[in-house]
Amino acid sequence: MHLTSRADSSLSLVSSSQGTNFAEAMALRSISRRFGSRVLSYRSSSVASLHSHATSFGFQQVKEEEKRKLVGNVFSNVASSYDIMNDVMSGGLHRLWKERLVGKLSPFAGMKHLDVAGGTGDVAFRIFDAVNSVKRRALRKVDEDSLEETQIYVCDINPNMLNVGKQRAAERGLGDNKSLVWVEGDAEALSFDDNSMDGYTIAFGIRNVTHIEKALAEAYRVLKRGGRFLCLELSHVDIPVFKDVYDLYSFKVIPNLGELIAGDRESYQYLVESIRRFPPQEKFATMIADAGFEKVEYENLVGGVVAIHSAIKL
Amino acid sequence: MISILIIEPAITTIIPFSHTYGLCTSSSSSTTTWEGTRRKPRAEFQEEKARVLSASLRHVPRLGWTEEAMMAGSRDVGVSPSIVGSFSSKEAALVEHFMDECLQLLLDRVDSGLDLQNLIPSERISKLIRVRLEMQVPYMSKWPQALSIQAHPVNVPTSFKQRAMLVDEIWHSVGDGASDIDWYVKRTVLGGVYSTTEIYMPTDDSPENRDTWAFLDGRVKDAFDLKKSIQEAKYFAQDIGAGVGKSFQGLMNGVMQTMSTRGGGSSSAF
């Protein structure tokens, strides 16, 4: 697998305002005409595909401003059956994937962690459990610094998802626990301070963000030096026969399950389409590296159905 | 005179980028690593990791060779303890870092004039091993833990390699340049002396580890006696070989003679 060389950093993908995308595309097209190189046309197509992420709602084309609202509607609709649907669609595997994510994170007592788009709290609860069992084990080695309180912030743009999460916390008896903090917020504009988090996770959420680069830039901003970024997301499968099986399952089975169990075919159609529109593993890894992260790696699970990308801010 | 002006075409190589992507595939099944377009090179992670591990050593006597020690070390360096989660082998990383540092320290001591000139080889070996083992004295209370970490099957390849390097460097400093079969024997024997002394040391209560050094001297002496016996064994084997060889040759000659006197047989030998 070879990646071709990149264009000038002034045309870097980390552009922040909507208007520049069009200008960039124009500038790139004129440059590629001058040099006529295959290299830059790869670049312009990559810019175009990212631009397309911001304006794609599954396979539909929508205005950028609208995407956020449309995604919001999807999650308001699915909130109550989100967990059941996850179990049915993945055959319970999503639990293992989240366990793997948290295992990779290696949570520790006293950590400040931010779980973005973590509405119903799956990842947050796992981190909470991991920290408390580690604490119990390490109780005999009391280090003064680690007596700082663990804080796990769960941030989600959709209040319905957060409510489901708070409810689940109450069911587990963690309703009043100070360690879990539920915050409504946007992954592209986090309300947390710079250099305040030891860890940042986003599980099955970054696909729904309008501007991925903004979310990555925010992640970089809030992480401390040495802090880790972990992203669990549905990704691209390349294995020949398995790919076709997976496509069949995605487009034929899942929307029907959505209709049957959640009474909402469109949302699940959006889900499977948005997976196909999301950048593949390597592309996403380069985007993470562009945001400034070091040691960017990814691990494919189930042949690429799911990928865990990890990186460190240094 | 015709002066030929060779006008070279101006070759403008436009390199519109300042960094290229490096694609490194690690040995595991599907994990791949990327460099970005930032100026910070990937080596910075390795440097940061080394700094954290060095700072962690200070906490080892109290916290052991554990993640807690590494997290305390990372706080000393000013980095979030999260970084420890990204080290692939956790505690083993700390122990291996320590072994590498000690080896480097030993080599520095040798280069900067550790007095070896007036000593015979067995004494030089003793001195070098002693210098190396003394580096472990501050961690002696937790050294058995380090040994058990090194003995985990997962960690054995690295710890074996580090010890082989250590033994090699010690022989090299002693002044040994042999490259025959002796090389393996010497490394193995010295490895044995080093390991047994290392294991004896945590049990030693004597002031300034006097008993350990006496033990060490004894083992080195045994090794040199062993070396002599191995040499003798080699000569003995050679003699036997020669003898057997002679008789085989004699047998062959006899067979050939018999065949030629029988007459007519094909002379193509086997």
From TrEMBL, chain A:
Belongs to the class I-like SAM-binding methyltransferase superfamily. MenG/UbiE family. It holds the Pfam family Ubie_methyltran. The gene is COQ5. GO terms for molecular function: 2-methoxy-6-polyprenyl-1,4-benzoquinol methyltransferase activity. It is a peripheral membrane protein. It comes from Brassica carinata (Ethiopian mustard). It is found in: Mitochondrion inner membrane. Coiled coil: none annotated. GO terms for cellular component: extrinsic component of mitochondrial inner membrane. InterPro entries: SAM-dependent_MTases_sf, UbiE/COQ5_MeTrFase, UbiE/COQ5_MeTrFase_CS. Methyltransferase required for the conversion of 2-polyprenyl-6-methoxy-1,4-benzoquinol (DDMQH2) to 2-polyprenyl-3-methyl-6-methoxy-1,4-benzoquinol (DMQH2). Component of a multi-subunit COQ enzyme complex, composed of at least COQ3, COQ4, COQ5, COQ6, COQ7 and COQ9. Interacts with PYURF; the interaction is direct, stabilizes COQ5 protein and associates PYURF with COQ enzyme complex. S-adenosyl-L-methionine binds at residues 120, 156, 186-187. Keywords: Membrane, Methyltransferase, Mitochondrion, Mitochondrion inner membrane, S-adenosyl-L-methionine, Transferase, Ubiquinone biosynthesis. The keyword DNA damage does not apply. It comes from the Eukaryota. This is 2-methoxy-6-polyprenyl-1,4-benzoquinol methylase, mitochondrial. It catalyses: a 2-methoxy-6-(all-trans-polyprenyl)benzene-1,4-diol + S-adenosyl-L-methionine = a 5-methoxy-2-methyl-3-(all-trans-polyprenyl)benzene-1,4-diol + S-adenosyl-L-homocysteine + H(+). Its EC number is 2.1.1.201. NCBIfam families: MenG_MenH_UbiE (TIGR01934), PRK00216.1-3 (NF001242). GO terms for biological process: methylation. Pathway: Cofactor biosynthesis; ubiquinone biosynthesis.
Automatic annotation (TrEMBL), chain B:
Its main location: mitochondrion. One of its GO terms (cellular component) is mitochondrial inner membrane. It comes from the Eukaryota. Transmembrane segments: none annotated. Pathway: Cofactor biosynthesis; ubiquinone biosynthesis. PANTHER family: UBIQUINONE BIOSYNTHESIS PROTEIN COQ9, MITOCHONDRIAL (PTHR21427). Membrane-associated protein that warps the membrane surface to access and bind aromatic isoprenes with high specificity, including ubiquinone (CoQ) isoprene intermediates and presents them directly to Coq7, therefore facilitating the Coq7-mediated hydroxylase step. Participates in the biosynthesis of coenzyme Q, also named ubiquinone, an essential lipid-soluble electron transporter for aerobic cellular respiration. Belongs to the COQ9 family. This is Ubiquinone biosynthesis protein. It comes from Brassica carinata. The lineage of its organism: Eukaryota, Viridiplantae, Streptophyta, Embryophyta, Tracheophyta.
